[in-house]
């Protein structure tokens, strides 16, 4: 039987065991009777010993597997825990009894990756001493673990070096780190390096070219009509009002001549107006929503006592204590420092009030500034919109150029990849010839090894048969000895001790007496405890009553203090309102004084003009004799006055225009400088972006080339590993390989025969005439 099947049976036997339902011996016998009837006695004995050993050292092996799964979580699977437990038990406790060649066969028949992980972990003695030994010492004697477990692994390490190197080469295609270069076998030293073989890649389809994005349709708005800028909103409103009044007048005039239809019911006496007035008064009373409260607020309220529970009393007491401590600290500070913070707080409140008044004035000033800033921001936004439009057009042109460059790069990459594919296809054709030669050599080796294995198995079977006969005879002799009955009876006395020599050993009667004494003592202790509990409850109630009285007194004092504070707040609020009124009145007076001063200046100017007029009249009276001269002088003075007024107006307008133009010029300069800066920044950013793009494309090409090389190397390594794996599988199971080869040869022969028959039939049909063929 193969070791693989034997290990599988051992795994099933351990996994199917349930300690609650069956004992280990009964479970083992039941499993062997059901599933292991074809096994030899030596194999059954092996299963029993493995099962009993794993159950005995269950905690020891669980610690080992748990640490292995945590440290090597990426290379292990928790489903293989029983397999690891079986092999770790055999290596640590039973390797001296097992022959090395048999153990090597047992390991080689398992998965090489799993066995490599386990053996590398077990024989790494530094890890075992640092990570597993502290956990083992909690259960077992440290001397036993150091001498037998770790010392045994160190002894077996020299013997296991060959197996470790072969397993690591099969699992990872590398030599193990535990084995040094001088100590490795010759097969590992002579191994040739891996040769890279290119991939057999398929041609990639070209991606369809993306269509260019549609150009956005620019919406051209109509220009603003000129007449809107000439008129203001006030003028438009006034025109609408005049138009409405005119339309009303026209309608009234059109209906003046029309006579109304007179009804006799209108001449009757009615109280319609009185009833209408009463209804309107009642509705007005109902619709008075300015009242704060529907009902007046009660002035005096009855104070209701609140019943407090224990938690509320304790909470109130804690608050009271905190307040008392704060008051003590305040008094202590007064005694030490001889000053109070009241004056500072009053000064602080006054400063806050002054700041509040200044804040209100500042806010009004800011509102006017914000309106002016809004107009400037609107102009700046329009200029910014134009700049962005120009920059967007430039960016679009640059993007089109980049797209063209990218397409050219992609075409170059595709051509390069096509050349690589052609090279790889040519290299692959040469490989198949070498593969066929290697397969023929492997077949010859497999047949020779198969003959040797059959001869060795026959010798082993004969030895096992002789050992089985001897064991059966010994078992029969032992069973005959066990069948003879043995009498083991003895009388029982409750006053006597068992006589095992233990400390405080006593008889059953003495034990009962002592129990009665202990029960009596416990009853006395219970009564004393009850008295103590009752006393503590009474003390607790008295303390709670005292605390409630203190809380009530504190609440009364606090309520009086709060009433005083409310009155003070009301007085303060009234004072603030009076102050605000004063500030408003002062502002109004200042505005009124400014208006009156302007009016006085205007009246003085009017008086001066009137005096000038009087003087001119007097001069006219004095100069009546020469009217022509007077008229000429008057005309000249009028002309001079008009010219002066015109010159003054022109000068004022020029000064205003210069100020406006200087402000506009400054604004344009600032905007132009900002626009230049933005354009420069964007140009620099685009240049930097282009440089980064080029470097990124170059890096991408390098990475793609490196990836392609790595893939070819990995593919070659995997291919060689598969070839080695197929060789190993052939060496392991030569019989199956031979059967598969025979079946393939038979199938090839049959297909060739069928092709020959079909060819002969087609030739015969061609020779026949057309009528017979139809």
UniProtKB/TrEMBL annotation:
Renumbered residue ranges of the record's region Disordered: 175-227, 556-577, 706-774
Organism: Paramecium sonneborni
Keywords, ordered alphabetically: Coiled coil
Highest taxon listed in the record's lineage: Eukaryota
Biased composition (Low complexity): 752-764
UniProt feature coiled coil, ranges: 314-341, 378-484, 625-652
Protein name: Cilia- and flagella-associated protein 99
Basic and acidic residues bias locations: 717-739
Biased composition (Polar residues): 706-716
